[in-house]
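User: Quick sanity check before I run a bigger batch. Here is a single chain. Can you write out its predicted 3D structure?
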Amino acid sequence: MACYAYGFTVRLEGMRIRSIRHRGLRRFIEDDDDREIRRDLVNRVRRILTALIAAPDVDGVQGPPGWRIHQLAGNRAGTWSVSASGNWRITFTLEGGEICNLNLEDYH
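Assistant: Done. Predicted structure follows.
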């Protein structure tokens, strides 16, 4: 399966994206349309998504320390978070090795 999401085709050999909550992320991934993502976040979101789909699992996601990849606690337990910028995070859950409920949110 291939995904045209970032100006080039990426083979989805790692984690697959099963569901996307954020409409702008869906457009960005499916149509390379970044209109619903803040301009200052576009390149960072592109790099994070590329790292997520290229990794065989969440332990294989490589990024700079500023991404602060971690699992949330409390009522969001089981949700992973990757810092995009300031309060903006890419969040998702994992089900059967697939990325679910992919979201771009300001959750602080």
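The CA atoms of residues 40 and 76 lie 26 Å apart.

User: Great, the batch can go ahead then.
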